[in-house]
Every structure is written in structure tokens, then in C-alpha cells.
Specification:
Elements lengths: L2 E5 L3 H13 L3 E5 L2 H10 L4 E4 L8 H10 L8 E5 L4 H9 L4 E4 L4 H14 L1
Parallel strand pairs: 1-2, 1-3, 3-4, 4-5
Helix pairs in contact: 2-3
Protein name: Stage 0 sporulation protein A homolog
InterPro entries: Bact_response_regulator (IPR050595), CheY-like_superfamily (IPR011006), Sig_transdc_resp-reg_receiver (IPR001789)
Keywords: Phosphoprotein
């Protein structure tokens, strides 16, 4: 069973994404910001991370940079799910090491298609 970490400061978004993924048989954990996500990542092996960008304490971009600095996480797929649709933000996030960028609200079928593709490639 594949294990996924969902990182978002919005409780509603976390619950929605967890529900979609759980129904497909994925084991899902969550964190409310980048700091919590790093703690979980250091304690548990994940097959994929889905993260927002705009969060308190540590945003998704800084989380992504820190993850990519750690050699053991260099190949970990990270899907960014953010409401920021500016091309500059998308490019900046991909340059920081995101595997894929989806704009909220992403349709459940698009989210699942992206998750499957990243897990298969990873």
C-alpha cells in the first residue's frame, strides 16, 4: 500500500484530499504546515507528498527546498496543489523541485491521475 503525506493549512482541503486518496486505497497522513511535514517525513517513509505553497510557519516552497537538500528525498515525488495560478509561481515552484503543479480546486479525477502517474514514475 502506497503512503502519501498531505500538507495544507486548510483543514477542509486536507480532509477532502485525504478522502479522495483513502477511497482509492492509499494510506494517508497529514500535516498543517511545512515544519509538521518535515517532522512526519523524518519519522515515516512516504511514497509521495502533496503540499500547498501558502502556509504559516514554513511554506510549501521552503519545505520543498529543504526536502530536496536531503539526499534520501531527492527522488521523492512532490505534487504541489495550490490556488496560486500565476505562471511565475508555477515555474518558481517547479525550479525548486516540485514534480508536478496542480491548481486548486483540482478535480478529483485529475488529482488521482496525477498521483498515479507520479507513483508509477517514482
Amino acid at each position: 500500500m502506497k503512503r502519501i503525506l498531505v500538507v495544507d493549512d486548510s483543514n477542509m482541503t486536507r480532509k477532502m484530499v485525504i478522502s479522495i486518496l483513502s477511497r482509492e486505497g492509499y494510506q494517508v497522513d497529514s500535516a498543517g504546515n511545512g515544519l509538521e511535514a518535515l517532522e512526519r517525513l523524518y519519522q515515516t517513509a512516504y511514497d509521495l507528498v502533496i503540499t500547498d505553497i501558502n502556509m504559516p510557519q514554513m511554506d510549501g516552497l521552503e519545505f520543498l527546498r529543504q526536502v530536496r537538500q536531503e539526499s534520501q528525498y531527492g527522488r521523492l515525488p512532490v505534487l504541489v496543489l495550490s490556488s496560486n495560478s500565476s505562471p511565475e509561481e508555477v515555474q518558481r515552484t517547479l525550479r525548486a523541485g516540485a514534480s508536478l503543479y496542480l491548481i486548486k480546486p483540482a478535480p478529483p479525477e485529475k488529482l488521482l491521475e496525477s498521483v498515479r502517474a507520479l507513483l508509477k514514475a517514482g
